[in-house]
Amino acid sequence: MKRQRLSTKEAMARFLALCCVTVVIVATFSLLFFITRKGISTFTDFGVRLLEFLTGRVWRPDRLPEEGGPAIGVVPFLVGSFTVSGLAVLIAGPLGIATAIFMAEVSPVWGEKIMRPVVEILVGIPSVVYGWIGLSVLVPLVRQYLGGLGFSLLSAGLVLSVMILPTVTSLSCDALKSLPRDLKEAAYALGCTRWQVIRGVLVPAALPGILTGLILGMARAFGEALAVQMVIGNVYSMPRSLLSPGITLTTGLTMEMGNTIDGSLWNSALWSMALVLLLFSLGFIGLVRLVSRAGGYRT
Question: Is the pTM of this model over 0.85?
């Protein structure tokens, strides 16, 4: 009787788990289908050419016919997104990896007691707070010491570097700590110093995990909207330098989606931008999967 009850509970648990999995799968594919259907309407319903959309440098979807007609080009958005994301990774990558090495190998006890909680605090700070600090402190500093308006790609990259630093640090630290002790002990047995072990054995062996942290950090930076919007300047033109204001895919969507009419060319163009953003996000996820599959200890 007891065994029968246990079997009934197991069956109910399996059914509940299956329902939850089904809901997640259906919700995911429904979201993908919805964004894809809305995004391609720009090309199917309004006759906009895909090449023109991806290579155009002018964003004027509200331009009147006597002015030349609507112009829909997302190059300024793509340049801004990749520039600030790449800059954030270039800054946060070395800092995060160095911090992870310190936490995992140089001073693991002190690192676990002090550094880990500090990193976790950075994760819990809302993005609007990062943006407000950047607007109040960073933008005036950039304007005073580097020139320009202060609202720039550089300011956005610096803010994003702090935001993705916990992701890079945590995943890199976990990758280093997951390595077997045999690697380290064998290197020490050969007479290597601590820094030789870290540089020549541990970091190469943990490289897939470190790259995963960098890719996920870039994906986080690529999808951030609010903090970037507050410091980047939001100018619909090609930036000339890192000190020039710019715009990203996410900031463009947040600024304009509420001001358009559903079914209009402008609204459809924004959905196409959302589709482009989704495709890049899927690309980052696929890249993480490839890096994980290519894992292994490279000594």
Answer: yes
